[in-house]
Amino acid sequence: MLWAGLLTASAACYLLKLAGLSLPARLLQDARVQRTIPLVPIALLAALVATQTFSTGHHLVLDVRAAALGVAAIAVVLRAPFLVVVASAAATAALLRLL
Amino acid sequence: MVSARKGIIRDALGIGIASGAYALSFGAISTTAGLSLLQTCALSLLMFTGASQFAMVGVIGAGGSVWAGAATAALLGARNALYGVRLSSLLEVRGLRRAAAAQFVIDETTAMAIARDEVMDSRFAFWATGFALFALWNLGTLVGALATHALSNPRVLGLDAAPPAAFLALLAPRLRAREPFAIAIAAAVVALVCLPFVPAGIPLLIVAILVGLYGVFRLPAPRGGRRAAPGGESH
Questions:
Q1: Quick one: DSSP state of residue B88?
Q2: Which end of chain A is more exposed for a tag (fewer CB within 10 A), N or C?
């Protein structure tokens, strides 16, 4: 089941890339398509940040992940490299759990 | 001409090394989410688009269904279709070369290719960046996954708290104007409000539908507004 999902999603991502190279440009050059598609990752990434920080299963929770996200936000504002942002969040969660 | 190529190779390697480092965290997060070494490496080889990969393993790691993760990954991959449109006239690839080029159509290769004045430099930049990224992204994934497999409990290192930081780092370069910022806040609130009432992963799809409706029905942006540019995934 996991493999089926991984392979299906990979195929979908590949076909989207191929579609851009292959389909007649006018199909994707519609003004509404052009301005809507770039908004999708913004909304999804923001929703992922929120749900994965403030929930466990179906419950809204506030735990060490909120502090980890706060540290990551500071690292982002300071323009730290990607790996530093992720590592600082992980380290924050690990340290707070030790307390 | 020759010095332009040298500059392109240098930039491509720089981008490749930065993404290799970021692939380390993908390998670690994917392994912590419960994917096997083979599954983790297969995603980097076959999906090869960072935000979608992080979303897929993030949703699975948080207990969502694999299909909710797959839908989110595909929605995040939709922007690559727009990059493909911009690249198709530059690359002019057919047949097998097009099939190979398609896998490289992502944020970084698009940004590198459209930044050139000469069409031959654009093509060179696309392929150089594509090969460098593909090699180092997959190497980084393998190393990150192997290192995490060696740990008895990745939670001790706080790796289970890492995905939101990865999503935030992917989101930040896209928030340079007021509208995207407002959309991000609204999306976060909507997702949290629906979360207690719908199956795991579904809040993301609700958010995707709402932003789609917003994009289609809102008033057109005033003329002369900045055109959407590919957001940098790596820094």
A1: H
A2: C
The answer, yes or no, to whether residue A45 has pLDDT greater than 70, is yes
Judgement on whether residues A14 and A57 belong to the same structural domain of the protein: no
What is the per-residue pLDDT across B173-182, written as a single tens digit (0 to 9) for each? Answer: 999 899 999 9
Q: Do B184 and A9 touch (CB under 8 A)?
A: no
Is the same domain home to A47 and A5? no
- What residues pair up with B191 in beta bridges, in sequence order? none
Residue B112 shares a structural domain with residue B144: yes
| Phi, psi values for residue B199, rounded to 5° | -60, 155
Residues A50, B189: C-beta atoms closer than 8 Å: yes
Judge whether A29 and B88 are in contact, CB under 8 Å: no
If you write DSSP's letter for every residue of A25-66 in order, what string do you get? HHHH--HHHHHHTTHHHHHHHHHHHHHHHHEETTEE--SHHH
- Residue B207, domain extent: 175-223
Question: A44 with A1, same domain?
Answer: no
Instruction: Say whether both B87 and B159 belong to one domain.
Output: yes
Q: pTM for the full model?
A: 0.86
Q: Which of A57, A65, A97 sits opposite B164 (nearest CB)?
A: A65
Q: Is the domain of B136 the same as that of B191? A: no
